[in-house]
Every structure is written in structure tokens, then in C-alpha cells.
Amino acid sequence: MHTWLMKSEPTAFSIQDLARAVKKTTHWEGVRNYQARNFLRAMQLGDEALFYHSNADPSAVAGIVKIVREAYGDSTAWNPKSDYYDPKASPDNPIWSMVDVQLLRIFPREIALEELRGIKSLVGMELLRRGSRLSVQRVTASQFRTIKSLATSNRVDAVG
Fold it and tell me: Domain holding 69: CATH number?
């Protein structure tokens, strides 16, 4: 099993929106970066991902989702009315991919980016690299466990 981090702006789609979705499941569409797309294609059924609210106040990890359908063509790419339209994409040449995710858990408290920066065991995490904008990224099992533990702790140094 692999672990991941997936970013979404809460004004576009929040973890609360996912909680209200049918079966708490939706497709993760609109990724338009080749490296992030390749990570989507590498995801396997049962993999878990941290759900991260980006461009929020504050930006923070909000919970955990599970991959319930592996990568398939992102149909928003060939829909001219979509914000994610790509005229080079088509059903025969999808170019872009999406996966389906299901909500596993909303954290009792969100873990803000600045708090994550203060955790020694998270040094080297892609999310914490200055200028990192990748919307889908790998997370090590250790980093994943650390963040899960932080979500139920009131102390920043509980896992450090």
C-alpha cells in the first residue's frame, strides 16, 4: 500500500463536501500537471491519502481518503464547458487521469501547514518544501502515521 497527499481548495471542494457526497465518494478530477497525473496513475485500490485544504486560512490537513477506483480518463478534459477542458484530450486520447476517493475520516482538528513545519520527523516532506505546488504527492508511511497521530493530539511536540 502507498500513501499520498491530495490538495483541494476548500472553496472548490472541501472534505465536508466529500462527507456530503453519495457514499462519501467522488472522483478526483482536474489535475493538470504531468507529475501529479502520474501519481494518480500509480495509485492502487486501498491506498490512502491525506486530504489537504490548500489556499485556505490556514492551509491544513483535514482528514483521510481511500482510493476506491484506480486511474481512468478524466472526462472533464474533453468537455468544452469544463474549467478543466483540454482541446488536445479526447476519450480516445484521454491525456489526463482521475481516481475515485472515499472519505475515511475527518480529523478532530486540522493540522496547519505551519504546525507541520515544526515537526522534526516531517523534514523532507514534499508539502513542506518551499515553493512546492504539486497537487498530488507521495507521502512516506512514517509521515502519514505522524500526521494521523497529530490529528488526535493537542500537543505539537507529541510526535516530534
Answer: 3.10.590.10
